[in-house]
Amino acid sequence: MVRDQRVKDNWALIHAVDQANKANVPIVVAFNLLINSWGPKQGNWDSC
């Protein structure tokens, strides 16, 4: 799994949360996972 898809150590997400906190607004995260796609297999998601 690449860093941009993680919750931990995701610099863009950390920055977004910081900006949302400064503006006193909520943050929403959406992730689209296609089970039967050409991408990573189930084992790639086990460490998440």
What does this structure look like?
With 48 residues, this protein is mainly α. It has one domain (3-38). The protein is built from 1 helix and no strands. The N and C termini lie close together (8 Å). Residues 1-48 form the Photolyase/cryptochrome alpha/beta domain. InterPro entries: Crypto/Photolyase_N_sf, DNA_photolyase_N, Rossmann-like_a/b/a_fold. This is Photolyase/cryptochrome alpha/beta domain-containing protein.
Major beta-sheet overview: none
Instruction: Using the alpha-carbon principal axes, give the shape.
Output: elongated
Count all strands and give the number.
0
Mean pLDDT: 79
Total DSSP helices: 1
Q: What is the straight-line distance between the termini?
A: 8 Å
- Multimer state: single chain
Give the helices and strands as they follow along the chain. Answer: H
